[in-house]
Amino acid sequence: MTKLRAVTFDYWHTLVAEHPGTLRRMQLERWDRLLARAGQRRDGSDIEAAFAKNWQRFEEHWWTNTGSYTPTDAVTFITQELSVEATDDLRTDLIDSYREVGETAELEVAPGLADCLRTLRDAGVRLGIVCDVGLTSSPTLRDRLGRLGVLEAFDAWSFSDETDVFKPAPEAFLAALDPLGVDPRDAAHIGDNERTDITGANALGMVSVRYEGLLRVTGLLESLRFEDLADHVIDDLAQLPQVLNIA
């Protein structure tokens, strides 16, 4: 195998993961509090139902790759679903609540992440991130990695709310690889999702690695089914340099 010049990483469930349901629970609590403070209290079950419909709208954008779906879009949709009169101040507070939740939610860090990144960089490999953003914006996601002390390991990144394109589209990967000056055939991509990470990487001729570690830690792995499309499957990031013949 030709020595790889770059490795790109998915973000969620590859670098970090939320404890299942944490972000949604925290967001629902904030909406309940903000609506009550604005004199527009709604039943909790109605808020939760509106959130579920909103996530379906996000997933439509994600699956069809029809552009980003932002917290602003979410607030517009949910307030309409709840027949909330969204004043400028209330809209601002509701939109900002997504940032607040993203900044404060507890995250599970992939075991061995820092050592894995250090080993790859010491071997001269350039590193990137290719992330499909949900409702936590890229500045917040980068800030979380900075606070973990690993952001500086990455040389380039591609976040869908900045590129306006989701994986598996080639443009999502090339937005990280092009600044590195690396051909996809000289790079590997690691992620947890076969539809987005593995299919997209395979189409570009990248070495594809499916990572199961954080799915296992968060209890999500047993509910998923895979078609084994990846070149490699690992459950520990410590395995990655050796699997890629880098260390």
Written overview of the protein:
- This protein is of the alpha/beta class and about 250 residues long.
- It has 2 domains: about 150 residues, 3-Layer(aba) Sandwich (Rossmann fold); about 80 residues.
- Strand 7, helix 10 and strand 8 form a beta-alpha-beta unit.
- Helix 1 crosses helix 2, helix 2 crosses helix 3 and helix 3 crosses helix 4.
- The longest helix has 21 residues.
- The protein is elongated and about 60 Å long.
Mean pLDDT equals 95
Rough outline? elongated
Name of the CATH superfamily of the largest domain = HAD superfamily/HAD-like
Domain module tally: 2
> Helix coverage percent of residues?
40-55%
Number of helical regions: 11
What pattern of helices and strands is seen along the backbone?
EEHHHHEHEHEHHEHEHEH
Gist?
This protein is an alpha/beta fold and 247 residues long. It has helices at 22-37, 44-64, 71-81, 88-104, 113-122, 138-148, 160-163, 170-180, 194-203, 213-217, 240-243, and strands spanning 6-9, 16-18, 107-109, 126-131, 156-159, 187-191, 207-211, 232-234.
What is the topology?
Elements: E1 6-9, E2 16-18, H1 22-37, H2 44-64, H3 71-81, H4 88-104, E3 107-109, H5 113-122, E4 126-131, H6 138-148, E5 156-159, H7 160-163, H8 170-180, E6 187-191, H9 194-203, E7 207-211, H10 213-217, E8 232-234, H11 240-243
Parallel strand pairs: 1-4, 1-6, 4-5, 6-7, 7-8
Antiparallel strand pairs: 2-3
Features:
alpha/beta; six-stranded parallel β-sheet; 49% helix; 8 strands; 247 residues; Rossmann fold
